[in-house]
Design a protein that fits this description.
It is a single chain. The protein is α/β, with parallel strands linked by helices and 444 residues long. The chain is 46% helix and 14% strand. The strands form two sheets. The protein has an eight-stranded mixed β-sheet with strand order 3-2-1-4-5-6-7-8, sandwiched between helices. Strands 11-10-9-12-13-14 form a six-stranded parallel β-sheet, sandwiched between helices. It starts with a strand and ends in a 17-residue tail after the last strand. Bound molecules: nicotinamide-adenine-dinucleotide and uridine-5'-diphosphate-glucose. The site of uridine-5'-diphosphate-glucose has 20 residues, from helix 9.
């Protein structure tokens, strides 16, 4: 049993802190956001993540998990401190280390005995060493400590499962003692411990995300070729994914990747490469292709409708992926403002992300948790998130409710033959366009 203080109670801090508490440690999750801590103390989750609320409540009842805004005291009391604060993208694309440095200072000011300081935030190479020097500076070199890079690989929407059954733990430590300690707390979750240097552990995180993002942009580029030659990208994904050297995951073509990690981490990796004098052409192309995917989808809508002026567009999905209320870098954040600028009347559906979306998109569109109400009387429907509610739409009813049966699908959810039979104009990604017999003038 280790006494762990987690600093930063976002996705990573809350999920990993709760899982460490559940596996027999004594955990306090801390945050500078007093409202967040107050809510958590009252049992209110700041994020939607399947299974999280139940696991938090269970561990709070058990006495293994608590929440605190008194960060100084929790640093003093802990043996292990996890840094899990945000590292957002600056306007230049670099990772912003402001919060990480603040926490390092706070640790230095409150160090009172040997502690292991673990970075779970995604940080550029060299940050572990930076944290070490900031702590030493504010502690005046009085106390011994070790620094560990232990990047987080959880996915939103499946975060608890990903942590409890993690495929590997990557641990880069400044001493064998610290490595052993952090390896021990991971034993309940995985037998695959990757031992690395601080710098290697830091770059593993960026390499993992960049590789997955590359798979997505690759298949999106193939999708764009498929559209031009009359092929079907979903069949290409199956055809290449069955080769075990390629694998079938992260080969779904669509509107491009979003979320709090891939866009930010590919941009940060580009900066890391520039800073060390390397021209990382591949990652530039991955980013460019991704930005283009949103444009491709909107172009299809424009071609089909001619002009968007006065047209009612229903947008299905605000979250960047299903089972989360996270809208960071969600396709909807780019696409809805563009549609409204073009004079469209936008009605947006999402089962749980509306509160978050309103904070960024505001009231330029209307919002509903009722998918059929959203679709009613629309001239076109755009699918941006593969929510279960969208996948299981009653399509004959949709056709009946819409002004005209036009669906632009950024997630390739429906069989082409079925859409043809139902009489939709159905424009998806990397697949032949289905043209309805009805009154759409210029559909591609
Ligand atoms: N979200 C994910 O799925 C995910 C997965 C793997 C890695 N990561 C990485 O983990 C890090 C955290 O991501 P997140 O999505 O959990 O972030 P988040 O933005 O949701 O939460 C960060 C939290 O840190 C708090 N904070 C900021 N400064 C603080 C300070 N000085 N002291 C105490 N608390 C402070 C904020 O109030 C906030 O609650 C990022 O580097 C991210 O790239 C995220
Ligand atoms: O075949 C695919 C797979 C995913 N996506 C999109 O890619 C984005 C990211 O999806 P996913 O990876 O499932 O979600 P995240 O929660 O952002 O998780 C990623 O980012 C996290 C933060 O770094 C890492 O910890 C995870 O390992 C990594 O998968 C989403 O917009 C998806 O719609 C596709 O377009 N096609």
């Amino acid at each position: 049993m280790k006494k762990i203080a987690v600093i930063g109670t976002g996705y990573v801090g809350l999920v990993s802190g709760t899982c460490f508490a559940d596996s027999g440690n004594q955990v306090t999750c801390c945050d500078i956001d007093q409202l967040k801590i107050k809510g958590l103390t009252e049992g209110i989750m700041p994020i939607y993540e399947p299974g999280l609320k139940e696991l938090v409540h269970k561990n709070v009842r058990k006495g293994s998990l608590k929440f605190s805004a008194n960060i100084s005291q929790e640093i003093k009391d802990a043996e292990v401190i996890l840094i899990a604060v945000g590292t957002p993208m600056t306007s230049s694309g670099k990772a912003d280390l402001t919060y990480v440095k603040q926490v390092a200072q706070s640790i230095g000011e409150n160090l009172n005995s040997y502690k292991v300081i673990v970075t779970k935030s995604t940080v550029p190479v060299g940050t572990g060493k930076l944290i070490e020097s900031v702590i030493r500076e504010y502690d005046n070199g009085k106390h011994p400590f070790d620094v560990v890079s232990n990047p987080e690989f959880l996915r939103e929407g499946t975060a608890i499962k990903d942590t409890m059954n993690m495929e590997r733990a990557v641990i880069g430590a400044t001493s064998e003692k610290a490595f052993q300690l952090i390896a021990e707390i991971h034993k309940p979750f995985t037998a695959n411990i990757v031992k690395a240097s601080l710098e290697t552990a830091e770059i593993i995180k960026y390499a993992a995300n960049a590789f997955l993002a590359t798979k997505i942009s690759f298949i999106n580029d193939i999708a764009n070729i498929c559209e031009r030659v009359g092929a079907d990208v979903t069949e290409v994904s199956t055809g290449i994914g069955l080769d075990s050297r390629i694998g079938n995951k992260f080969l779904q073509a669509g509107v491009g990747f979003g979320g709090s990690c891939f866009p930010k981490d590919t941009a940060a990796l580009l900066h890391i490469s520039e800073d060390c004098g390397y021209d990382f052409k591949l990652i530039k192309a991955v980013i460019e292709t991704n930005e283009g995917q949103r444009v491709q989808l909107v172009k299809k809508l424009l071609l089909a409708l001619g002009s968007l002026q006065g047209k009612t567009i229903s947008v299905l999905g605000l979250a960047f992926k299903p089972d989360t209320d996270d809208i960071r870098s969600s396709p909807a954040l780019d696409i809805i403002p563009y549609l409204t600028e073009q004079g469209a009347i936008v009605k947006a559906f999402d089962p749980i992300a509306i509160v978050e979306a309103k904070k960024q998109i505001g009231y330029q569109c209307t919002y509903s948790e009722d998918i059929y109400e959203t679709i009613t009387d629309s001239d076109a429907c755009m699918i941006l998130t593969d929510w279960q509610d969208v996948k299981t739409l009653d399509l004959p009813l949709v056709k009946h409710l819409m002004k005209q049966p036009l669906i632009v699908d950024g997630r390739n959810l429906f069989e082409l033959e079925m859409m043809k039979q139902l009489g939709f104009t159905y424009l998806s990604v990397g697949r032949p366009a289905i043209q309805s017999e009805s009154n759409i003038s210029k559909a591609i």
